[in-house]
Write a sequence for this structure.
């Protein structure tokens, strides 16, 4: 029986993880639950699963991770605030089932330097798919990683046609039910840019060998191309319980997690190239990833500020990524990457983004 701690237990990832536990009560013991502010829901979860240790907030969550014996820590927190708990889990020697991509992207070499081989197991559906497909060959046989993107609600639209889209339109994702920031990031494709950086850090594949292809059905979650010309794809109906369950039991699989594809029904899957002119966030993320140090933290923090400004009606949709680019152009990375320099870079990025936003909304 695996002892698990769930960070972000009241969010989408956390609730689905608890559903996996419900289906397999003999496989897991939930020993810790951490949420942001929803104390009432955490208490209800703790009562249902007989959990003794609970906490609110990332800082308290990091302390819980260090103090409570566990086999696996599922980090389902949203945002770079998840960095502290990620570091705590790695330092404590826990297997880290990582759905909080921002902590890896922002922490970069700090996080990868702490992780033992295999200690980080990806939970994002795309990176779980890559991890599964990579088992088909050795590292030296890998030619390319291909991340799939649904294209979001604005797939196929030109850049100019996106100028006046509304926050409600940006939140109307055709496939996934996610929070405001992640759903908006899917509309701008910032989320896919972050996932490219995450793929590089997880699998040590160069940015020139990581591609993004638009696949609106969200059935093929990502692919690995090998040097002999073969491509291995992981396909399943969109259901986050599949990668969550794998994250908790990797490399083993559990039965009765998701419905399989129905191969008796005629269907069609589409793949099309990403329009980088309309959605420049992915190429910008590759530039940021190559720059390393604090640049990914600035990319992420500036975007979070811009997303808030968009939903507050202060800037337009296209201004989100344009703001991020303008903030990055003014950034000078410190000589060393530390928790202190990361915190300072994020603070600077948010302040700089607010000045850019104010100028754009004047």
């Amino acid at each position: 029986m695996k002892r698990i701690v769930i960070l972000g237990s009241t969010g989408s990832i956390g609730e689905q993880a608890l559903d996996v536990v419900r289906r397999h009560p003999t496989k897991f013991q939930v020993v810790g639950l951490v949420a942001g502010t929803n104390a009432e829901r955490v208490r209800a979860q703790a009562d249902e699963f007989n959990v003794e240790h609970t906490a609110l907030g990332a800082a308290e969550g990091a302390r819980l991770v260090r103090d409570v014996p566990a086999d696996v820590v599922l980090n389902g927190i949203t945002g770079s605030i998840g960095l502290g708990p990620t570091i705590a889990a790695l330092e404590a020697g826990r297997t880290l089932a990582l759905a909080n991509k921002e902590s890896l992207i922002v922490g970069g070499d700090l996080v990868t330097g702490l992780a033992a081989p295999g200690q980080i197991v990806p939970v994002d559906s795309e990176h779980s798919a890559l991890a599964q497909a990579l088992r088909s060959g050795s590292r030296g046989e890998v030619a390319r990683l291909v991340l799939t993107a649904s294209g979001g609600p604005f797939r196929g639209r030109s850049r100019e046609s996106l100028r006046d889209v509304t926050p409600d339109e940006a939140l109307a994702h055709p496939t996934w039910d996610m929070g405001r920031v992640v759903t908006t990031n899917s509309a701008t494709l910032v989320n896919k840019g972050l996932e490219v950086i995450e793929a590089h850090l997880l699998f040590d594949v160069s940015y020139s060998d990581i591609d993004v292809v638009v696949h609106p059905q969200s059935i093929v979650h990502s692919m690995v191309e090998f040097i002999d010309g073969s491509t291995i794809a992981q396909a399943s109906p969109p259901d986050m319980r599949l990668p969550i369950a794998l994250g908790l039991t990797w490399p083993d699989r559990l039965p009765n997690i998701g419905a399989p594809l129905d191969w008796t029904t005629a269907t069609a899957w589409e793949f099309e190239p990403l329009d980088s002119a309309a959605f420049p966030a992915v190429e910008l993320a590759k530039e940021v990833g190559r720059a390393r140090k604090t640049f990914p933290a600035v990319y992420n923090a500036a975007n979070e500020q811009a997303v808030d400004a968009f939903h507050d009606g202060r800037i337009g949709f296209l201004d989100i990524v344009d703001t991020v680019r303008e903030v990055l152009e003014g950034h000078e990375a410190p000589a060393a990457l530390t928790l202190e320099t990361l915190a300072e870079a994020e603070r600077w990025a948010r302040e700089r983004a607010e000045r850019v936003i104010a100028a754009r909304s004047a």
